[in-house]
Amino acid sequence: MYSSDFGKDFLWGVATAAAQIEGAANSYGKGPSIWDTFSKRTGKIKKGHNPSEACDFYHRYPEDIALVKTLGFNVFRFSIAWSRIFPIGHGTLNKEGVAFYHNVIDECLKQGVTPMITLYHWDLPEALSKEGGWTAFGINSHFNEFATFCAKEYGDKVKHWIVINEPFGFTSLGYMLGVHAPGQNGVSNFFDAALHTAIAQADGGKILRAEVKNAVIGTAFSCSEIIPYTQSSQDIIAAKRVDALMNRFFLEPTLGMGFPTADWDVLEKFAISHSTWRHQERMRFDFDFIGVQNYFPLVIKYNAFIPVVQAWEVKAKNRRAPHTAMGWEVNADSFYRIIKQFAAYPQVKNIMVTENGAYFQDHLVDGKINDQARIEYFEAYLAAMLKAKNEGINITGYLAWTLMDNFEWAEGYQARFGLVYNDFKTQQRTIKQSGYWWQDFLSK
Ligand code: BGC
């Protein structure tokens, strides 16, 4: 199997995110983001790590884009740090920040790499968080100001856009479970944040459509096949609830279907108290592609003691299923099935895999990282994607997560997902064997 098996127009890229790679978090006029402040709270991030230097991409972007090219990819996905453009989230602009993304885009174009921008990849300006962040009604007008600015400023040069990265990811981890920034808890926070995020997602799409000529607009959903632990009706129903929350909750409003409330009274109550038919219309946008990001399936068992969802994950290691160093099950067949689940909606025109990848323990031996497990992971996942494509599913691209080891949110710098190893003390990059594997795969 080689890249040519996917057709000549297929997009191959690597995905990254501003807070995970840029560094220069407190300089060049950038305002603090919620990850800068969250990482100062004791015990929130492993080993007390913080994103202030990350991969120092801010200073090293020409070499890093050259690495994208060396590996043979033709797309570089990166995000814009909102607080680098608007230090307090709206109003006053930071010209240095605006210039920085021009430089990154120009460098991509100069090196023959297509830039793909994510508008929001989790690093909300701290100043907006103080006003309630995604739970506050006012967030939508601020987001729209930011989206409009970026579309007008960069839209002549950048045609590929992703509005929001994993709405379920950051609203659940950040506003319900408190393990990601801004560290809030509670179902009500989550539902408030979810509604505003679903609106922002569609608003962003509409703004890009209006401002950017010939734009290719998508948004990126986390997705996981949800498998009931047993065939008992309790496990099956619990699995359905998790599926509604993790896979359907943000996708279906985008497709004009409203929130998936039919099978679950909790969601129905939320929808009645939070959203109206007006919201339903506003949350809809006809995206050019639906981004899917898959890292694991989930096996779900009914559990009456878990509030709201009454479901519990049976972890891969307890089932003796193969898993990554993150504990996430490696299961390429489930990747194939979740692609099919997302593609089955008649409103979905095509799918782009906007993230997929794995953290395995990497060991630098004699200047080399022999990450065979990661190579096998990509081989299996790409074969599964090819099977789906050959069955007629319109898949237009695949972006590997990620170019280089970086700041992996609450895991700090320990969890290495890169195709390129990064020594965080010296910022020296070393291409892993998986990177060379990609180079070979993409050359044919
Ligand atoms: C996120 C990335 C993250 C990756 C691995 C995705 O959910 O979009 O930012 O690094 O998962 O955890």
Gist?
By secondary structure, the protein is α/β, with parallel strands linked by helices. The chain is built from 16 helices and 15 strands.
Key descriptive features of the protein:
single chain; 444 residues; alpha/beta; TIM Barrel; eight-stranded parallel barrel; three-stranded mixed beta sheet; 16 helices; 16% strand; binds beta-D-glucopyranose; carbohydrate metabolism
How would you describe what is shown here?
Helix 3 runs parallel beside helix 5 (95-110), helix 7 (139-154) runs parallel beside helix 9 and helix 14 runs parallel beside helix 15. The protein is globular and about 55 Å long. The protein has a single domain (3-442), classed as TIM Barrel (Alpha-Beta Barrel). A hairpin with an 8-residue loop joins strand 8 (298-302) and strand 9. It is an alpha/beta fold and 444 residues long. The chain contains 16 helices and 15 strands. The chain has helices at 18-21, 34-38, 57-71, 82-85, 95-110, 126-130, 139-154, 167-175, 187-211, 233-248, 251-254, 265-274, 277-282, 332-343, 372-390, 433-443; strands at residues 11-15, 75-79, 114-120, 160-165, 216-223, 226-228, 289-294, 298-302, 311-313, 351-355, 364-365, 368-369, 395-401, 420-423, 428-431. The structure holds beta-D-glucopyranose. The site of beta-D-glucopyranose has 11 residues, from loops.
Query: What is the oligomeric state here?
Result: single chain
- % residues in beta strands: 15-25%
Q: CATH first level: which class?
A: Alpha Beta
| Helix and strand composition category | alpha/beta
The low-pLDDT segments are: none
Distance between the termini: 9 Å
The biggest beta sheet reads: 8 strands, parallel, barrel
Count structural domains: 1
Backbone shape? globular
Question: Can you count the beta strands?
Answer: 15
> Considering DSSP H and I runs of 4 or more, what fraction of the residues is helical?
25-40%
- CATH fold field value: TIM Barrel
| Strand order in space, largest sheet | 1-2-3-4-5-7-10-13
Rg on CA atoms, Å:
21 Å
DSSP summary: helix tally = 16
**CATH homologous superfamily caption:** Glycosidases
- Identify the CATH architecture: Alpha-Beta Barrel
InterPro entries: GH, Glyco_hydro_1, Glyco_hydro_1_beta-glucosidase
GO molecular function: beta-glucosidase activity
EC number: 3.2.1.21
Keywords: Carbohydrate metabolism, Cellulose degradation, Glycosidase, Hydrolase, Polysaccharide degradation
